[in-house]
Write a structure and sequence with these properties.
This protein has 22 helices and 14 strands. The chain is of the alpha/beta class. Among the domains are: about 80 residues, Gyrase A, domain 2, CATH 3.30.1360; about 40 residues, no CATH class; about 180 residues, Orthogonal Bundle (Isoleucyl-tRNA Synthetase, Domain 1). The strands form four sheets. The chain has a five-stranded parallel sheet, sandwiched between helices. A four-stranded antiparallel sheet has the order 1-2-4-3. A three-stranded antiparallel sheet has the order 8-9-10. A hairpin with a 7-residue loop joins strand 9 and strand 10. Helix 7 crosses helix 8, helix 7 crosses helix 10 and helix 19 packs antiparallel against helix 21. It is globular and about 90 Å long.
Length: about 600
């Protein structure tokens, strides 16, 4: 039982004993550093039920706790705050349990529970992954790992946008200007090769628009009548009709892209359990429209198009089927959501999608609820802000996109430059250095992005992220490696539990911080926020560095204290490794 739960019961007993009231909901917080105590009961909310002076109420409860529990050693009251001092024996007992648990912090799923599906990445097959995809992938993957660690089964998925006019633009440009080149013949990753032709289409299309305007067309007509666009539209019609040549080219070029994506995903350290493809899902949902019409959820306009009116819910009218009977994205998303709940034993679904789609998901979730799907209340949009580099916003059609692979390569190079400048890796072989540069560079990138609340926009500074001081990945990685060095030097047996009459205040402080790890995972899972894990880990590392600087570890003359301090160091390292694993970050054994 956690400290807060034990206190909850004890305070409830105190109030029942003195005031004959049955209360069990109390506000606790960490005791301020300028007061003695480990945890503080906020007395003011109790005044709604208990008449009297808050200081006197605090004294009464504190006295009861001290006299009637074996884990409260003292207390003090400051205005309406009861600061409670917990016994060293309680923290020793907690640490013994931590020490015996090799998977401390991680909860096992109930095999009878349904799974949570987490969707992320969802790229287009006409261009490589970019900086926005990096945040999406890191965020979605980490949230999936955190939910799993909180004790739930998880299915990681993506929907690949592999059809549509934008895909045909790349295909047509390759047909016209590619001269048969392939990833093998050029040495380019397939996603980059295809992306080059998406850019090429845009360049040639703009030339045709300019020509049309010079021939006397309006800009709008010049765009619509550009021969290249008309060819791309015809290609899409042929694809939808199943034209053998078009479908063959589509499969070939998409496979180039998938092979390229796989390399990028492996570099980023993310994966998926199942893939959905828009080419298989774009017709889903059309049958649901008739069901919605029968239920009165949708209505049909005179031109035959089908809509839903959400004005009473503060939204607007939304089309779900065009007059010609073709589906829109909303229709497809409705059908895909329903299909996923048919395909897998899930009870909730998390969509990792940028905040520009906030309105879309409000409408989607509301439509599914109106259609009568009970699980619609278990849908969650993990909305996140854009990532910017100092150079500004990205535009993929113009070829100025911040490429994900190039960003990772730059991070590794920056890690190399800074490490060599600081002389951090002297005595390492070339292979060891190269591996460490990857661990540090990727760790810096992932931590910088994940430590920020998902809803906030990020200005990513590669150099600042690799600072070996402050709230950065490398700072935490360095602390982990430092602890590994201590453990290698500890040649004595420190495996047995140690019980001391009194704990050093810094040791106690670390145990208190470690104790909160399981709760932090649960909170991060409930809030879909890796930032809570990242910042918990940073606070743990700050406390450990204070401990390291002020408490003798291997140099302690008392064997029991020395063993305990090594054990605490070991457990801190284990929690760092586990926490960083939930963020998708590796830790080095030496650094």
């Amino acid at each position: 039982m956690s400290l807060q739960n034990k206190l909850q019961q004890a305070v409830s007993a105190a109030i029942l004993n003195h005031y004959q009231l049955s209360l069990n909901d109390f506000e606790f917080q960490d005791t301020r550093p300028d007061f003695e105590g480990d945890i503080t009961l906020v007395v003011f909310p109790l005044l709604r039920h208990i008449k009297g002076n808050p200081m006197q109420i605090g004294e009464t409860i504190g006295t009861y706790l001290k006299e009637n529990t074996d884990f409260v050693s003292d207390f003090n009251v400051v205005k309406g705050f009861l600061n409670i001092v917990i016994t060293d024996a309680f923290y020793s007992a907690i640490f013994h349990k931590m020490l015996a648990d090799d998977n401390f912090g991680i909860s096992n799923p109930n095999p009878d529970d349904k799974a949570v599906m987490v969707e992320y990445s969802s790229p287009n097959t006409n261009k490589p992954l970019h900086l926005g995809h990096v945040r999406n992938n890191l965020l979605g993957y980490s949230v999936a790992k955190i939910i799993e660690a909180s004790g739930k089964k998880v299915i990681k998925t993506q929907i690949i946008n592999d059809r549509g006019i934008h895909i045909c633009k790349s295909m047509l440009a390759w047909q016209k200007f590619g001269n048969g080149e392939t990833p093998t013949s050029t040495g380019l990753k397939g996603d980059k090769l295809v992306g080059n032709y998406y850019v090429k289409f845009d360049q040639e299309y703009k030339k045709q628009i300019a020509q049309g305007i010079s021939d006397g067309l309006s800009e709008d007509d010049a765009k619509k009548q550009a021969p290249l666009l008309i060819e791309a539209q015809n290609m899409l019609k042929k694809w939808e009709a199943g034209d053998a040549q078009v479908v063959s080219l589509w499969k070939t070029m998409n496979q180039w892209v998938y092979d390229g994506f796989e390399i990028s995903y492996k570099t980023l350290g993310v994966d998926f359990d199942i893939n959905y493809y828009e080419s298989n899902t774009y017709l889903l949902g059309k049958d649901v429209v008739q069901k919605g019409l029968d239920q009165g959820v949708f209505y049909k306009k005179e031109d035959g198009s089908v809509w839903i009116d959400l004005t009473e819910e503060g939204l607007d009218e939304k089309i779900v089927l065009r007059a010609d009977g073709t589906a829109v994205y909303m229709t497809q998303d409705i059908g895909t959501a329903i299909q996923r709940f048919k395909d897998y034993d899930i009870n909730s679904l998390v969509y990792t999608v940028g905040n520009e789609q906030d309105y879309h998901f409000k409408v989607l979730f509301l439509i599914l609820k109106k259609l009568g799907y009970d699980w619609a209340d278990k849908l969650y949009h993990l909305s996140y802000g854009m990532v910017d580099l100092p150079s500004g916003k990205m535009k993929s059609r113009e070829g100025t996109v911040v490429d994900a692979d190039e960003l990772v390569a730059e991070m590794v190079q920056t890690a190399k430059d800074i490490s060599e400048e600081l002389g951090k890796l002297e005595g390492y072989s070339t292979e060891e250095k190269e591996e460490l540069y990857k661990i540090i560079g990727l760790g810096a990138l992932k931590y910088f992005i994940l430590k920020v609340d998902p809803k906030k926009r990020i200005l990513f500074d590669p150099a600042a992220s690799i600072d070996f001081n402050g709230n950065t990945g490398p700072f935490i990685q360095y602390t982990y490696a430092r602890i590994q060095s201590i453990l290698r030097k500890a040649t004595f047996d420190y495996s047995q539990p140690v019980t001391l009459d009194a704990l050093n205040s810094k040791t106690k402080d670390l145990i208190k911080q470690l104790q909160g790890f399981t709760e932090t995972i649960a909170l991060a899972a409930a809030n879909h926020s890796p930032a809570l894990i990242a910042n918990y880990t940073y606070d743990l590392v700050k406390r450990y560095n204070t401990f390291y600087q002020t408490v003798p570890i291997l140099g302690n003359e008392n064997d029991e204290e020395k063993a305990l301090h090594v054990q605490v160091s070991q457990k801190v390292a284990q929690v760092i490794k586990t926490a960083f694993g939930l963020l998708g970050i590796n830790v080095p054994e030496r650094m």
